[in-house]
Specification:
The chain has 391 residues and is of the alpha/beta class. It has helices at 13-24, 49-57, 61-67, 89-96, 105-115, 162-167, 232-240, 247-253, 284-287, 296-309, 321-346, 351-365, 369-373, 377-380, and strands at residues 6-9, 29-32, 44-47, 73-77, 83-88, 101-104, 121-122, 128-131, 139-143, 146-150, 152-155, 175-186, 196-199, 203-209, 215-222, 260-266, 275-276, 279-281.
Amino acid sequence: MGLHQAIVIGGGIGGLTAALALHRQGVPVTVHERAASLEPVGAGLALAPNALRALDRLGVGPRLRALATPHPAVGVRHPSGRWLARTSSAAVEAYFGDPIAAVARADVIAALVDALPEGTVRTDSPATLVTPGSTDEPAVVRTTDGEQPAGLVVAADGIRSTTRGLLLPQHPGPRYSGFTTWRAIVTPGRHPAAVGEVWGRGRLAGVVPLADGRVYVYGAALAPVGARAASEHAELQQLYGDWCAPVPQLFALAEPDRVLRNDVWELSAPLRAYHHGRVALLGDAAHAMCPFLGQGACQAIEDALVLASLLTPSTDLASPLPAYTAARLPRTTAVVTASRRIGALVALRTPAATLLRDTALTLAGLLPTRALLSRSTATYDWQPPALSGEV
């Protein structure tokens, strides 16, 4: 493998999007994923307008838009069922020019893999950075096939990124947010009328319709790091059993052994750069964030488009990496901060604090639709750069 070829470490959404974007630019690329297969994960994903535009650039947007299930309105409710704030999905699409498309994470993975040349993604293939390379020397990655030189390494190896640890050993690494999450996909027979989130004291739940009658349901609650229940299914009934429909009913439908529980970690201290030598950090490896803004995967998708747009196979793949950091670090740091602020509102637990929060949400919900939606403009109005190999 020469200086005009790339290696991607990690076969998640960020890594696969980067591979496809590089492929569209004419850069030969291989993805190494340590898992034995790209197994479907029981979770949904909200593709906001900024991510949808990027996926359109790659030619997979139409496939994913077709899988999104339309619903009339979204918003935030009190556990009693009282709406605190809501807006219509049509208003979101009219204001931003694109909807928020809810799809299964497995469907996004499948769309990206299917768009790549056969053999691009190698599963059961752990890869470790040996040296980041320099202007004069290639990066080197150790794989099951031995050490491979590369003109570019894209480290999309997640929040526990070993690549980041090698490049930035002084960085404090991820910090526990205080929240744990549960996720499941269920099939209730028909989509619930009330969708969106329900906010309580120190916890929330969300309901997202998917294709084929499925529903993605999730919860987040303050909990000690590493805490686990004998039965996560029973834990959900205890936490949400007296909340408004359809939250407890959907959690009850979840198969107990398919409920995913994960603690939420974030990179609260920004990295000083998203590149070093011939290595670019991407997605959670660069800017892991709390999920409360729904932008984790969306920002990884943005990373991939920006990185690829700066590269061509006829030039040194490392030369544009400072521009990648300059373009992505300020934006993603702002999104990480905004996500953390929303998490702080969810974390409120005292009656006085939650009453104040809920009152503020209710008053915000009385604002004209344009005023309410304008608060998301900085995030959703992002436009992807052009690629030379757009389809």
